[in-house]
Amino acid sequence: MSTASTAAMSPETWRRVPATAAALFGITIPYRPPSNRIGAFFWRKRMLFETTTGLCLLESWEKTLMLFLIYSILTLAITGVYKYAPQSAVYVTQRTAYYFLGHEPEHSATAPVVDWTVHNLTGEL
To answer: Where is the chain membrane-spanning (predicted)?
Structure first.
């Protein structure tokens, strides 16, 4: 049986004002926001995220597993966009020019920039 001072909903735990690092990076959310304005802002955003997604109802190991999965998927998505977006932008530019002009342009609009970059990076004269 837990005592009043160690219980999760004890008055001491409820009144405690957490540090900013504990509010942002702790696995459990403190009941009150930190006294720092920036920490309080991020505490509100974290509270909004966890209550919207239901993470506040999970146990610590479940929350850790879910956050690992979310961050892994987010990392894969951002990496995919980073790798694919430049190729896609060139293709979309070429297709747009074809649709508007009715033919493929002889050289792309970025050819002078590419030539200048290659010239300056390789040192060719």
So the answer is: 65-85
